[in-house]
Amino acid sequence: QVQLVQSGAEVKKPGASVKVSCKASGYTFTGYYLHWVRQAPGQGLEWMGWINPTSGGTRYAQKFQGRVTMTRDTSISTAYMELSRLKSDDTAVYYCARDYQEFDYWGQGTLVTVSS
Amino acid sequence: SSELTQDPAVSVALGQTVRITCQGDNLRSYYASWYQQKPGQAPVLVIYGENNRPSGIPDRFSGSSSGNTASLTITGAQAEDEADYYCDSRDSSGNLLRVFGTGTKVTVL
Fold first, then answer.
1. Closest by CA position to B30, among listed B97, B105, B103, B104
2. Whole-angstrom distance, CA of residue A22 vs CA of residue A79
3. Is some CB atom of chain A closer than 8 A to the CB atom of B42?
4. DSSP secondary structure letter of residue A26
């Protein structure tokens, strides 16, 4: 069965960086784009960008350009999302989601808390 | 970039029908997908494409589209349908970008 398993919760100080992982199983990792979506406490879903696991190509939402980097390691079927220069309003649950035209499978989410 | 607008909240009596709408110019070109999210859980896909349900989604969920508006209808709402619902589609600047709707809280009375 398809699974996306994300890394555990993180607490970071303002200005630091965080790297969240998303390990895929149950399907061919290079067959589907992976997207990252975040949700601040009590807020809606916010699309951040995607990575093409085959080529490593990426596309980011304009809001995150220059602060986000999405990478992958095909040898372990894992995608990564790194967000730098963290601010308090980056506190959110970060999700990875598989792109099958729509987002058909989601990771369980990773809570990132930014606090001094 | 595009925006997808949803009503913040709707309520429905148990067993009745509720329609949730999603408006945006990009919906004239692209279908919306719909996601259900319960507190503390990841979103779950409920409708995609013209009107398709993933395996395991009850047939009381259906989708439709007209012009710049996509709709999700729950026919015979159940208590377990109480959740937040989000639409999603491709951005009008090109199908490489995605955008989510603002979300609708559905309360089943």
1. B97
2. 5
3. yes
4. S
The 10s digit of each residue's pLDDT in A46-61 is: 999 999 999 999 999 9
pLDDT, chain B, mean: 95
Residues A90, A18: Cα–Cα separation, whole Å: 10
The answer to whether the beta carbons of residues A87 and A100 sit under 8 Å apart is no
Chain A hits for B100, CB-CB cut-off 8 Å, are 37, 44-47
d(CA A84, CA B28): 36
| DSSP tag of A89 | G
Report the residue from B1, B49, B84 with minimal CB separation from A62: B1
Higher pLDDT, B96 or B35: B35
- Residues of A37-71 as b/e, b for ≥16 C-beta within 10 angstroms? bbbeeeebbbbbbbbbbeeeeebbbeebeebbbbe
**Cβ contacts of A108 on chain B, cutoff 8 Å:** 42
Are the beta carbons of A44 and B45 separated by less than 8 Å? no
Amino acid at A90: D
Does B48 contact A at CB distance below 8 Å?
yes
Of A50, A62, A103, the CB nearest to B88: A103
Report the distance separating Cα B3 and Cα A15, nearest Å. Answer: 30
Residue at token pair 């199908």: B95
